């Protein structure tokens, strides 16, 4: 499991994370992150807008960071990002096999799952061969007396 935080967090929090999400309106901060946290994965969130792809800048980000990708909220960007060689994923949870096949055909770098597909991870992985993203809820063991002491995946947000 990876620890992901907003790019607006203090540096002390950013350096503990595995992945940093940066809103498109804050994209200028990414240049600072090249020096501060180059070993982190960076996700640029597009906030449901279509903008011209900043191909040279985003290619440079892919070279500088452990992993750089764009979370898109408008699928019209997918073709242009693929043509530019920029990794992307659909920013909303996929909840049906119909959506899964449709998005997978567009060649994202990740598939983000929601319920009920998050409970069929093996079947989904076999169907797509694309890495999966989840935002899980963890069940707190003190409230679940019939479980052992480790937190357990209890479903998506």
Task: Characterise this structure.
By secondary structure, this protein is α/β, with parallel strands linked by helices. The protein is 29% helix and 22% strand. The chain is built from six helices and nine strands; from the N terminus they run βαβαβαβαβαβαβββ. The strands form three sheets. A five-stranded parallel β-sheet has the order 1-2-3-4-5. Helix 2 links the parallel strand 2 (19-23) and strand 3.
Would you spell out the secondary-structure blueprint of this structure?
Blueprint: E1 4-6, H1 11-14, E2 19-23, H2 29-36, E3 41-45, H3 55-64, E4 67-72, H4 78-84, E5 88-90, H5 97-104, E6 111-112, H6 121-128, E7 132-133, E8 136-139, E9 152-156
Parallel strand pairs: 1-2, 2-3, 3-4, 4-5, 6-7
Antiparallel strand pairs: 8-9
Radius of gyration: 17 Å
User: What is the count of β-strands?
Assistant: 9
| Biggest sheet, spatial arrangement of strands | 1-2-3-4-5
Give the termini distance in whole angstroms: 15 Å
Apparent shape: globular
